[in-house]
Amino acid sequence: MVSLNLFRRRQVKSSVLDVPLEKYDQGTGLPAIINIGHVDYKPLVSLQETRDHLTFLSALSSLRDSLPSSDDTAFSSLCKESAKAYTNWAQHTLISRPFTASDLPSLEILVAWHSHLLNPTIYDQEIAGAYRALEGVDFPLSEIASLISRRDDTAKAIRQNTLPSFRLITSDEESSLKKTVWSYEEIGMAIGRQAKFVGHMKRIGWLDEKYWDKGLSKLQFSIVLYHAWLDLMQSTECKYFLVPRLDIDLAWHTHQLHHGRYKADTIMVLGKLLNHDDAAGDEKTGNGMEVTRKLWKKRFGWEYQ
Description:
The protein is mainly α. The chain has 2 domains: 16-46 and 215-300, no CATH class; 50-203, no CATH class. The protein has 12 helices and 2 strands, in the order ββαααααααααααα. It has helices spanning 47-65, 72-93, 107-117, 120-126, 141-147, 154-159, 171-175, 184-203, 217-235, 246-256, 259-270, 282-300; strands spanning 34-36, 39-41. The protein has a two-stranded antiparallel sheet. Strand 1 (34-36) and strand 2 (39-41) form a beta hairpin. It is globular. The chain starts with 33 loop residues before the first strand and ends in a 5-residue tail after the last helix.
């Protein structure tokens, strides 16, 4: 996993990376305008969305920690049952009415929905079919975050508020699930992959709200870096597998949770819906990192660490 060390300047080249923190917009905490290619954009991801995402990830971390640390079977079972319940919820519970904040499901279902969204090309196909009730629905980050006490055990806190309790689906419900692009088993595996990312966030301290008492500059910079990464993607016409740093990945994930906006933004910037391959192997990632380092330094004049 890529470290979050600060860049070391090698040469001068003007880009959004050169904008000093004190020049960021005081209202948004980000540069008012960010250039991608030859076009100026308002930030595609907000600081508040990213903070709310971290709050949700802290709930995922607490949920994982509530299981025996040595019992991988219990976690695998949780992933599978959460995916089943999510599939049933999306296909049957939501199908008859528009989604609203009052429709927030259990934390376990939210975990599965979150992981599904982080595979955007698959998700885009799904919402045209069996998951059509979720078309146009953003992942409710702000609503979830508003239920969580940031200083307490977040999984416990979220359950003590308005989220329903988790229940296993019945055999009749399971037999009525529609055919989908991804099976619930595949969504369950995606939950497992995201658990690794959550673990990395916990390791660097970003899931602890107290970490941010000293300032949000690292989080602000992660969003700016994500926009620079999109600029690099555009400048190379998406020809390369560019590997994001951990902080860039967080901002990228946050963007993907607003699927309709993410699709429109990446088509506007890159000419296509940008996929997120969370199952990329170590060999592909390793080769991509070397390419990313070279291209990043050439375009921005900064080392990519």
